[in-house]
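4.2 Preliminary Data

To establish feasibility before requesting continued support, the project team ran the inverse folding procedure on a target of 82 residues. The structure was first converted into the token representation described in Section 3, and no sequence information of any kind was made available to the design step. The complete token record follows.
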């Protein structure tokens, strides 16, 4: 049975943090099977966003991705393996 690795990433101050988060995602691009981005919009873009990732790869690779994201101020990442 395949294990599913899902990571939730909350980004505060999106306009400042998004470029660095994208750089990290690009580094791990071969490990990302699916990416969904959500953010609230009224009449302007929200400064907080939620990104959901379905990941593949070793436990170590996924752990390093999570660590790099959590090392950023204003970014929180958590992985669920089911």
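Position-by-position output of the design step:
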């Amino acid at each position: 049975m395949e294990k599913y690795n899902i990571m939730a990433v909350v980004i505060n101050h999106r306009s400042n943090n998004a470029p660095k988060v994208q750089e990290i995602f690009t580094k791990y691009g071969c490990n990302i099977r699916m990416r969904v981005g959500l953010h609230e919009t009224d009449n302007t873009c929200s400064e907080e966003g939620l990104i959901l990732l379905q990941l593949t790869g070793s436990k170590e690779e996924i752990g390093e991705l999570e660590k790099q994201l959590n090392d950023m101020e204003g970014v929180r990442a958590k992985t669920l393996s089911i």
